[in-house]
Design goal:
Layout lengths: L1 H10 L2 H10 L4 E2 H5 L6 H13 L3 E6 L2 E6 L1 H38 L4
Antiparallel strand pairs: 1-3, 2-3
Helix pairs in contact: 1-4, 1-5
Length: about 110
């Protein structure tokens, strides 16, 4: 569950989500990832470290460059967790809806509606 915490913490930041969206198109160097943002390279490196800790990306050194790649497995784990909880809440809301309709029907039957 701790890995899931890291994943959601990493996804909470819009800059990190934008980096992941870029990496979904293919690998990129740290410099390429930093280009669209008005933050320093060290700030981007910190974001990349968070993504790496969450196991969302891999950073590799190639010659003088650091190349980043997306690791979609962690996103699948988060997606599976969300889906499981979505189903649970839908079932609960369906039961609540049925209960409220039953109450409303009883009131109508008793002439209170």
């Amino acid at each position: 569950m701790q890995q899931l915490d890291h994943t959601f913490a990493a996804l909470a930041d819009p800059t990190r989500r934008a980096i992941l969206a870029r990496l979904a198109l293919g690998e990129a160097t740290v410099g390429e990832l930093a280009e669209p943002f008005e933050v320093s390279l060290p700030a981007i490196s910190k974001h990349l470290k968070v993504l790496e800790t969450a196991d969302l990306i891999i950073r590799e050194k190639r010659a003088q460059q650091r190349v980043c790649k997306l690791k979609p497995e962690a996103l699948k784990t988060a997606s599976d967790w969300i889906e499981q909880n979505r189903r649970m809440w839908e079932e609960r809301f369906d039961r609540l809806d049925a209960y409220l309709r039953e109450l409303q029907s009883r009131e109508t039957d008793n002439g209170n509606g």
